[in-house]
Structures are given as structure tokens and as C-alpha cells.
Amino acid sequence: MKSPLPRLFRALERFHASRPWDHNAHYHRWILRQLPGRFDSALDVGSGSGDLVRLLATRAGTVHGIDADATVVTRARELTGPAAPVTFAVGDALREMPQGPHDVITCVAAVHHMPFGPALARFRQRLASGGTLVVVGLYRPRSGTDHLIDAVAIPSNVAMAWIKNRGRKAPPPASMTAPTRPATMTFAEITREARRELPGARLRRRLFWRYTLVWRRD
């Protein structure tokens, strides 16, 4: 007897293709809760269409966004407008990251596109004393805990897709059109490397195939 799982996964893929929602934006409000009420300078690495940059601008004196995709940066500028205290740049985040120092650095679903250890080291160098780094990243499931969280995420993902789209079919949000690649590091590998580069960093697995990292510089 054939397993029903392949048919189930194909049905889920069709459902999500017709009712997409932004898993990364789901964590934006959580990111804001990790930050001070006001701060001077913020940097968002892998800024995409600028959704998080615009949220940070409600608290920051200036916000800089950097992304390697010129098309999505153009879209971010169009959506933001000239009045906001925001700049966007196209470039390699490690080689062309604004000097700072920045009171806040955020990086959502982008650090797995970079060499992980060097990226964290560069974030540390650019972060001001007393500043906060927040990363929302992807990891490769491997352990039993990973797979258990993935299993819990499936019905939650369906529910969120239905709620956010009110049951209707919809085109993907602008922030979901940039190219992506799968994560290659496991959560255990990420944790070991992060604690080498950022002593005291707090990491946690999250729903929807994400993890979070928070580090505050002394």
C-alpha cells in the first residue's frame, strides 16, 4: 500500500502556492520587541523590499538597508518614498556594509546566503557599544527536535495561510519574490559558531522553519 504522505505534501504545496504569506514578516514585530524604544542608527542586512526597514524607521534616527538584488532594492525605494529617514544600497553585505557603528543590526532570512562565521564577525564589528543584533535565520532540520517542530509547523502554517488570506487565493507578497536558497547548516552547527563569534548570544528554534539569535554588545 502506497503512503498517502506524498499526496498530502503535494496538496499542501498547491494550497500554499495559492495562499502565500510572508514567514519572515511574521517575526518583524517580535524583532521590534527586542529593541529599545528609540535608537539612533539601524542597519538591516538583506533588506529585500524594505518592510522591516520601514518599521525600524518608526523608532530610529536613520536606517540603512543593504541587499544584493538590485531589482528588489528599487522596489524598496518605491515603496518607502523620499520623506522617510531611510537609505537603501545594492551591494555585498560583507564587503560593502555601511561602517557604522549602528545601535541596531537586523538580518532576516539572509545570513544563510553568506559565510556564517565571517558574517557574524562583521556584524559584531559594526555594532555600537550597547547595541543589539537580531537575526532570524533558516536552518537545516536534522535532530528529532527539529523534525518535531517541523511537524507542528505544518498545521500552524496552513492556519496562518488561511487567516492571512481570509481563505482566498492571492499573489505572493513583494517581499517573497526575491531568489532564495536552502539552508545548509544545522541548528547545532549554527549555535556552536554563533557562540564562538558572539559570546552570550541567545538562540532559539522557532516555528515556520526559522531560528532567532539575539546578542547585545557590552
List the helices and strands and how they pair.
Blueprint: H1 5-18, H2 28-33, E1 39-45, H3 51-56, E2 60-67, H4 70-80, E3 86-90, H5 93-96, E4 102-108, H6 116-126, E5 127-137, H7 144-164, H8 187-197, E6 202-206, E7 210-216
Parallel strand pairs: 1-2, 1-4, 2-3, 4-5
Antiparallel strand pairs: 5-7, 6-7
Helix pairs in contact: 6-8
The termini sit apart by: 60 Å
* Helix fraction by DSSP (H/I, runs of at least 4): 25-40%
What's the SSE pattern? HHEHEHEHEHEHHEE
* Global mean pLDDT: 82
Number of strands: 7
Strand content: 15-25%
The strand order across the widest sheet is 3-2-1-4-5-7-6
Instruction: Quote the CATH topology.
Output: Rossmann fold
Largest sheet: 7 strands, mixed
Low-confidence residue ranges? none
Q: How would you sum up this structure, described in words?
A:
This protein is of the alpha/beta class. It has one domain: Rossmann fold (3-Layer(aba) Sandwich). 39% of the residues lie in helices and 23% in strands. It is built from 8 helices and 7 strands; from the N terminus they run H-H-E-H-E-H-E-H-E-H-E-H-H-E-E. A 7-stranded mixed β-sheet has the order 3-2-1-4-5-7-6, with helices on both faces. A hairpin with a 3-residue loop joins strand 6 and strand 7. Helix 6 runs parallel beside helix 8. The radius of gyration is 18 Å and the shape is globular. The protein starts with a helix and ends with a strand.
